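Retry 2 of 3 after timeout on previous attempt. Resubmitting structure tokens to design endpoint.
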């Protein structure tokens, strides 16, 4: 018995000694990294003999710090916004116009960059939502349902009407493609629509289109909106797919339509997307085909994307600027957005009287004279975090979960 007790005590002491040694080793490495990093910041001509000796002694640390600095520079370069000059932009748009005229099946992929002209923030731009949150900064927020379709949205709708575009695949949740008049069968909203809540208990799934943002009470893995299906009484849920979730709803996500469109496409035009999320969906890129048989890829984005090397053409400009030049090349007239003709008013299901107090978002109205009419008080313009469940809280929960797993 004494032998067993001594063995346990010895084993425990060895573990403690090993843990202590690891902690001391990490502290020594941290001290060396700080010392070497301080020396490397000095110009080579200003380093003393002792400092030069420190660098010579810790070559591995010097190489590691140099690799880290290189990675930081590459990352910063990828985040920088680049603008083509006027002549280069016009030349590139002419190439794009020619490709569109020759395309048999053009599919358009859209990201947050096409909605920034509507004062909706993007995600990964210099002032994007995720960029600011990663820096620990607070961000301003307002009711995003106040936004209206941009010139780019109306161009896409016009191009579809003229049979130049067969399908649109969007990462955006703002509902502006639907509001532009683009037919829903020609649209896949892969990450949901802020105006749509659904009953998944009904078969088929029953949709309720609303005139306000339904995501006020929702967030990551919490999708109930607080209202109930008027047919079966079950809880309604939003359609938003947060980072870390997998979208399974047929509508408005329409994955089947997106996959089929990508399969038959001969040209793909990406507008205002970093493609950091879309790149993870193999079915959108025909990766099972030989490279020569894949669709030709054209990208319009101010920042680097992981698909740049595969693109036939990369245009560095704002989407509205590109689309204005493109419409001139295609000799197409684009009608402006008209709120009175917004399809959302015919698609919407009105709330029941008992549901009047289930939200505090501003309601969209057909007349601009009633723009300031809302069911309840307006959302504060300046807040410490994003309101609603669209990206703010869901993003932070995703980040917390990710940190715990590291």
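Retry 2 succeeded. Sequence:
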């Amino acid at each position: 018995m004494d032998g067993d007790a001594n063995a346990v005590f010895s084993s425990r002491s060895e573990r403690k000694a090993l843990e202590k040694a690891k902690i001391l080793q990490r502290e020594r490495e941290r001290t060396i990294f700080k010392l070497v990093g301080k020396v490397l910041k000095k110009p080579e001509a200003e380093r003393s003999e002792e400092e030069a000796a420190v660098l010579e002694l810790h070559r591995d640390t010097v190489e590691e710090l140099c690799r880290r600095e290189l990675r930081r520079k590459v990352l910063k370069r990828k985040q920088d916004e680049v603008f083509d000059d006027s002549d280069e932009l016009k030349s590139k748009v002419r190439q794009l116009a020619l490709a569109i005229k020759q395309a048999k099946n053009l599919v358009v992929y859209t990201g947050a960059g096409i909605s920034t002209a509507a004062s909706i923030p993007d995600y990964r731009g210099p002032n994007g939502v995720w960029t600011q949150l990663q820096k620990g900064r607070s961000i301003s927020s307002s009711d995003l349902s106040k936004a209206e379709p941009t010139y780019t949205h109306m161009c896409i709708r016009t191009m579809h009407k003229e049979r130049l575009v067969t399908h649109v695949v969007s990462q955006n949740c703002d509902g502006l493609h639907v509001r532009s008049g683009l037919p829903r069968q020609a649209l896949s909203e892969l990450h949901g629509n802020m105006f749509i809540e659904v009953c998944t208990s009904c078969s088929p799934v029953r949709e309720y289109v609303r005139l306000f943002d339904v995501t006020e009470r929702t967030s990551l893995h919490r999708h109930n909106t607080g209202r109930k299906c008027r047919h079966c009484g079950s809880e309604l849920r939003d359609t938003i797919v947060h980072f870390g979730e997998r979208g399974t709803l047929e509508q408005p996500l329409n994955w089947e339509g997106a996959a089929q469109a990508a399969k038959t496409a001969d040209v793909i035009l990406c507008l205002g997307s970093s493609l950091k999320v879309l790149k993870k969906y193999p079915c959108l890129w025909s990766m099972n085909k030989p490279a020569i048989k894949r669709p030709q890829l054209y990208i319009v984005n101010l920042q680097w994307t992981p698909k740049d090397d595969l693109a036939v053409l990369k245009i560095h400009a704002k989407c509205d600027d590109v689309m204005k030049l493109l419409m001139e090349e295609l000799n197409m007239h684009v009608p402006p957005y008209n709120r009175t003709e917004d399809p959302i008013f015919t698609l919407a299901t009105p709330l029941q009287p008992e549901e009047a107090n289930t939200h505090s978002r501003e309601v969209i109205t057909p007349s601009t004279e009633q723009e300031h009419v809302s069911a309840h008080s307006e959302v504060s313009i300046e807040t410490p975090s994003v309101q609603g469940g669209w990206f703010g809280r869901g993003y932070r929960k995703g980040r917390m979960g990710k940190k715990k797993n590291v």
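Attempt log closed. Residues 2-40 form the longest helix (39 residues).
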